[in-house]
Design the sequence.
């Protein structure tokens, strides 16, 4: 790539290189690695936020993603309004949202603030609302990034239980986290990325050990 203004050659940066994997229906795959490894890029590609410059991606089923804090929320709208907005973006009809609305609110624990504009929410409240909506879409594929680390321990436990319930119902999970014990408790397999390349994948304990050994 050549810059017109300086005529200097710019180095091409590949966020992911030779990354290949499959995830079976109902399986939970943990994606681990240091910051900048390419973990979030994988989820953005799978959710079609970003298009790949090379390679092939195939996802079967309805996808629900919780990738960026507050993504899909309008700051000036109330939590109630944002539930309807976000759930409709994720593919639910008005009647489906009506049926699940109370459950979404109760799970989030934000009953007292449901009529409050979300621009007044803390980061933890954003995560509560975002995860609750994403989890109640009843997706066939759920993508979860590190955002759950913002929530408190009680909410993280509820999220883990909800993820396990979705798995039991046949939902496929891709889960990114630096919380390795949480990855081990949720996932069947793990994939360890570094500098956009796979360093290890397979058995969750063995892959976590490979990552920890690299770190230390």
Sequence:
């Amino acid at each position: 790539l050549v810059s017109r203004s300086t005529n200097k050659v710019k180095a091409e940066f590949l966020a992911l290189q030779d990354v290949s994997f499959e995830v079976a229906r109902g399986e939970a795959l943990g994606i681990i690695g240091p910051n900048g490894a390419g973990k979030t890029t994988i989820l953005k590609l799978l959710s079609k936020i970003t298009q790949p410059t090379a390679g092939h991606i195939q996802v079967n089923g309805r996808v629900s993603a919780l990738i960026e804090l507050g993504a899909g929320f309008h700051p000036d709208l109330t939590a109630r309004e944002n539930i309807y907005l976000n759930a409709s973006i994720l593919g639910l009809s008005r009647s489906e949202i009506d049926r699940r609305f109370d459950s979404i609110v109760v799970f989030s624990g934000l009953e007292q603030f449901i009529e409050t504009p979300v621009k007044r929410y803390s980061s933890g409240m954003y995560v509560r609302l975002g995860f609750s909506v994403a989890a109640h879409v009843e997706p066939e594929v759920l993508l979860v990034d590190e955002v759950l680390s913002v929530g408190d321990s009680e909410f993280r436990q509820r999220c883990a239980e909800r993820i396990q319930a979705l798995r039991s119902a046949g939902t496929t999970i891709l889960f990114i986290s630096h919380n390795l014990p949480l990855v081990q408790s949720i996932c069947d397999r793990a994939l360890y990325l570094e500098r956009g390349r796979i360093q290890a994948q397979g058995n969750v304990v063995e892959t976590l050990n490979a990552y920890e050994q690299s770190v230390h």
Remarks:
- DSSP finds seven helices and six strands in the chain.
- The beta strands are 28-32, 63-66, 141-144, 172-176, 189-194, 197-203.
- The mean pLDDT is 86.
